[in-house]
Amino acid sequence: MRYAYQEAIVALGARPAEETARTIGEFWNEHNGSSASNLLDVGSADGAATEAILSFTKNIRFDSVVVVEPDLSLCDIAVARISVGTGRVVGVSSIDHAGGGFAHVLASHVLYHFSDLKEAIIDFAGRLSHSGLLTTVVRSTTCDTFLLRSLSCRRTAETARINESKVMAAFRGAGLDPVVEYVQRLVSFPREQYRAGVPDGALKQFLEFAMRLDVAGPLDQEARGLLNEMIMTRTVGDVISFSLRDMIVFGCRVDCDGSHSARMTW
Ligand SMILES: C[S@@+](CC[C@H](N)C(=O)[O-])C[C@H]1O[C@@H](n2cnc3c(N)ncnc32)[C@H](O)[C@@H]1O
């Protein structure tokens, strides 16, 4: 379902991965210099997001990549996709088979699938080489898709299972020094797709995915009112625009004195 949600956003033309990929790629370039590297990519799906990141890290040579993707048909696609321009790429169905000693561990939009955030980050951190860098991406609690989901599940940023402060605390708990970057872009719909409080067309599809109405069921009166208010505040002229906001957290070991250290401070 989450993957379908990403697909829906891509289908709407928001190209969510691009700016996030650029931000990650540039950070990795700075961290890594031009040396050889290896990568563990947790939750690759079809590898499109990782492929986009690698397009921004042309001066890093990835001699080996391990792709973790439980959906094996997606895993095969990811391996084929990431193999272009990199060394050996291996696909595994579970992180338990991933091994360790990685210069980069990437967990992009996958933490939602791990029931214990702290344990997941400790596991990822344990798979890093001494100067390795962990990169996680989650949607921010100020992302409009998060706020829309809050309308249907009645969970706030404070009570969310994954929020900014919990991710930062999990990094610190795993002995990593976290640095955060936010990436924002807009997804827009014609105002005519929202008449008399009833969404239509691509807007309807977006709202259904963002609020996970398949799980939450129909919105009650109060939630409809809140949704209506939110849409009014997102409407300018003939366009309704929602802001999508990713939170990227980078972290390497607190005791690591690599070339990135200047960048790894607040
Ligand atoms: C939303 S997609 C993220 C795809 C890509 N990394 C991105 O940033 O767009 C999440 C992927 O994680 C996979 N996944 C779910 N549970 C997982 C787990 N325990 N370990 C690794 N991957 C998992 C899902 O099958 C899905 O393909």
Key words describing this protein structure:
8-stranded mixed sheet; single chain; elongated; 266 residues; two-stranded antiparallel ribbon; disordered C terminus; binds S-adenosylmethionine; 39% helix; Rossmann fold; 2 domains
Beginning-to-end CA distance, first to last residue:
36 Å
The proportion of residues in beta strands is 25-35%
The third-level CATH topology of the largest domain is: Rossmann fold
Any ligands, ions or cofactors bound here, and which? S-adenosylmethionine
Number of domains: 2
Structural class: alpha/beta
Parts with pLDDT < 50 across at least 5 consecutive residues: 259-266
> H/E element string?
HHEHEHEEHEHHEEEHHHEE
CATH class of the largest domain: Alpha Beta
The geometry reads as: elongated
Q: What composes the largest sheet?
A: 8 strands, mixed
Helix content: 25-40%
Q: Output the number of helix runs.
A: 10
Rg measurement, Å: 19 Å
